[in-house]
UniProtKB/TrEMBL annotation:
<dbReference type="InterPro" id="IPR050378">
    <property type="entry name" value="Metallo-dep_Hydrolases_sf"/>
</dbReference>
<dbReference type="GO" id="GO:0005829">
    <property type="term" value="C:cytosol"/>
</dbReference>
<protein>
    <submittedName>
        <fullName>N-acyl-D-glutamate deacylase</fullName>
    </submittedName>
</protein>
<dbReference type="GO" id="GO:0016812">
    <property type="term" value="F:hydrolase activity, acting on carbon-nitrogen (but not peptide) bonds, in cyclic amides"/>
</dbReference>
<dbReference type="InterPro" id="IPR032466">
    <property type="entry name" value="Metal_Hydrolase"/>
</dbReference>
<dbReference type="InterPro" id="IPR011059">
    <property type="entry name" value="Metal-dep_hydrolase_composite"/>
</dbReference>
């Protein structure tokens, strides 16, 4: 007698082999039998999987769910998408060492609020509950939660520096020899406790959120190469993973840092996963440089183990006025982001400051007119910024003029130009729009003046969206199947009001589906066993003895699904704010975690969020993890 039997499924076991028609039996949380017909076994629950895909639960290899785990440890948006294992504490930030509040410092709020666009009030409440003080205590805490999916923690570098040096010192000076030795000691402890790896960050738009640190970046970015080399060498000895982000504006520093993966130079390769290889609209060669760098480092000469993470989705982002996750890349927007979200008067002072306006106009118009190096680079899609600064790329999601919603900002800009050059009132214009147009400078100079006036008039009441990467379907497909990449990067739990990639893994399967079942099998492997092997964890395969983490997908619903039309805005009471989610209907039929049915035809189980289905997964070479699969 089994607890659950999945009958007549199209089984993808995660290995990349062709699918087979099979029954799968689950008993006491484990897969106990796989066969073409398990007639001798009966289940308390039997699932008819005729025509459905059965596969290992999917992995999300890059998340910022650390905070949500403290508020809603069942992680409902993750689970409903067939994801059963998540990697947390990426980009050097997390709650591994508790709240770390000392000397008036509040590191969790300082590090997360701007980097991950999370409300300070929620972060403060989470910090209040982080009563542990070391990495072992954090593991015990995670194991006490009613986890939905399995959780794979990393040691976050910024929090490690703060733990040893304090926040103020970690962003203002080098560590002493004793402090660096203490960091190494704590990282060694984390590796011996089974943490899957170590995360750092070098992206130039990750800044702290509290005074007096608002012009400072997060602590990991102040670490020199000797510190990075010493700490990653510990990760290398344990054969764990270094998760990193590149200093995108400094190719020399990036190459020097990622040479740490080399087994030729350092005797043993360092498993390294880097965020991310994406097809930027403003720079069409960036992803090729990433792939080339990875190929060189992984060559027989250097013997590295580096994989760039790949996002399976178009990179669609919502902005509130000038506020979005990448705005800190641009100094003119960064000064606005340094203010609190509700400080409208503070932003108004900046937006009307003549010096700031001059700087904004220079930034916005760079390369748009005439002939110059900047204009040539713009025409060739070789710019060094992510934002496109194009009105026809900016779609209105919300604003005080309802008639604008769904339009690009280029459309009302053109109507404004026509309005200002018309000698008589245009009756086709809405009265509200006519009134608003009368408030603009006349004549309007250019699109910089237009967008500036919108920010001055509406501030965050203007909500717009843009897709700044992964627009080309063929290019995206190449990235997802490229041997130098790891798909499964969804950034779940980050930027709650600005992005939502929870469906990224399902999108990857949909892309593969267009080329037949063998390609689906390849993609299942790339979303399950491949990243599980890379991170050194027991997950990602359907085989007897493995923990029963499975998802069942309806291929007909997957084929019909239009991912760009299933975004929703919901109010999450746990966060006290609006969140972007995407919920494909009926694509994921069932999700089983630890042998428990947690998602069944659109409904969570009664004990979901009350009792644990997932577990904390340590590295599989750790004593507590050995023999579990």
């Amino acid at each position: 007698m089994a607890d659950i039997i999945c009958r007549n499924s199209i089984l993808f076991d995660g290995s990349g082999k062709s699918p087979i028609i099979a029954d799968v039996a689950i008993t006491d949380g484990k897969i106990t039998a796989i066969g073409s017909q398990l007639d001798g076994i009966h289940g308390a629950t039997e699932i008819d999987c005729q025509g459905l895909w059965l596969m290992p639960g999917l992995l999300d290899i890059h998340t910022h769910l650390d905070l949500e785990l403290e508020l809603a440890p069942e992680l409902p948006e993750v689970v409903r998408h067939g994801t059963t294992t998540v990697v947390i504490s990426n980009c050097s930030i997390g709650v591994t060492y508790g709240h770390q509040r000392r000397n008036g410092e509040d590191p969790i709020v300082d590090c997360f609020a701007r980097v991950e666009n999370m409300p300070k009030s929620v972060l403060s409440r989470v910090a209040d509950s982080c009563t542990w003080s070391d990495s072992q205590g954090y593991l015990h805490h995670l194991e006490s939660l009613p986890l939905g999916p399995n959780v794979v923690p990393l040691i976050p570098h910024s929090m490690l520096r703060i733990e040893v040096m304090g926040l103020a010192a970690s962003i203002s000076r080098k560590p002493t020899r004793q402090e660096l030795a203490r960091m190494a000691q704590l990282l060694e402890a984390g590796m011996s406790q089974g943490y899957a790896g170590f995360s750092t960050d070098a992206l130039p738009f990750h800044f702290l959120a509290n005074s007096p640190n608002k012009k400072k970046k997060i602590p990991t970015q102040y670490a020199g190469f000797p510190e990075l080399s010493r700490l990653t060498n510990i990760v290398r000895r344990y054969n764990r993973v270094w998760q990193a982000t590149p200093p995108k504006d400094n190719i020399f520093t990036a190459v020097r840092s990622f040479m740490l993966t080399s087994g030729r130079l350092y005797k043993h390769p360092l498993k390294t996963t880097v965020l991310a290889s994406i097809d930027l609209q403003t720079n069409r060669v960036a992803m090729y440089l990433c792939l080339l760098l990875s190929a060189i480092l992984n060559s027989r000469i250097l013997k590295g183990q580096l994989r760039f993470q790949a996002l399976s989705s178009s990179f669609r982002i919502w902005s509130d006025g000038a506020i979005n996750p990448i705005a800190d890349e641009v100094p003119e927007f960064r000064v606005l982001n340094e203010l609190e979200l509700d400080d409208r008067s503070g932003r108004a002072r900046i937006l009307n400051n003549p010096q700031w306006v001059k700087a904004f106009r220079k930034m916005w118009l760079k390369g748009k007119k005439g002939w110059s190096l900047a204009s040539i680079l713009r025409r060739l899609r070789l710019e060094d910024v992510v934002l496109t600064r194009q009105l026809d790329d900016m779609i209105v999601a919300e604003c005080p003029l309802a008639s604008w919603v769904g339009e690009t900002l280029e459309a009302p800009y053109r109507r404004l130009l026509k309005y200002q050059t018309s000698s008589s009132h245009n009756p086709s214009l809405h009265d509200e729009e006519t009134t608003f147009f009368s408030s603009f400078p006349n004549p309007i100079k250019d699109d910089a003046a237009f967008f500036l006036h919108l920010m001055q008039a509406w501030d965050t009441d203007l909500r717009w969206e843009t897709t700044f990467a992964n627009r080309n379907a063929k290019t995206l497909r190449k990235l997802l199947f490229h041997k130098q990449t790891l798909p499964g990067f969804n950034d779940s739990g980050a930027h709650l009001a600005n992005i939502g990639f929870y469906d990224g893994n399902l999108r990857a399967l949909k892309i593969a589906q267009q080329e037949g079942l063998q390609q689906v099998s390849r993609m299942v492997h790339r979303l399950t066993e491949l990243p599980a092997k890379f991170f050194g964890i027991n997950a990602g395969l359907v085989r007897p003895g493995a923990q029963a983490d499975l998802c069942i997908i309806d291929p007909v619903a997957l084929e019909k699904w239009d991912p760009e039309k299933t975004y929703h805005f919901i109010h999450r009471s746990q966060f006290g704010c609006r969140q972007i989610v995407n919920r494909p209907d009926a694509v994921v039929r069932n999700v089983i975690i630890g042998g428990k049915m947690v998602w069944d035809n659109g409904i969570y189980s009664e004990d979901f969020g009350k009792t644990a289905s997932g577990r904390v997964i340590r590295a599989k070479d750790h004593p507590l993890e050995q023999g579990k699969m």
